Amino acid sequence: MLALPRGLEKKISDLKKIKGKGWDRELEKAIDIMLAESLLLSASPNQERTEEQAIEEASKAVKAYRASRKKGKSV
User: Does pTM surpass 0.70?
Assistant: First the structure.
């Protein structure tokens, strides 16, 4: 599982304070992009990824992160 970059949770909480329609979707898109970039930059030389593969992996990581956050809140 991919860990979120340091400080991202603080940024997320700051963004949640902002009121307005659609902020959560914009945040999700931003997280997807950051994780995809992180995966592209940290790929091992032996493992070549296309941008689509990195974005798909980032989306899976984001979904897993969101599920873990929801699970933590419901407990």
Answer: no
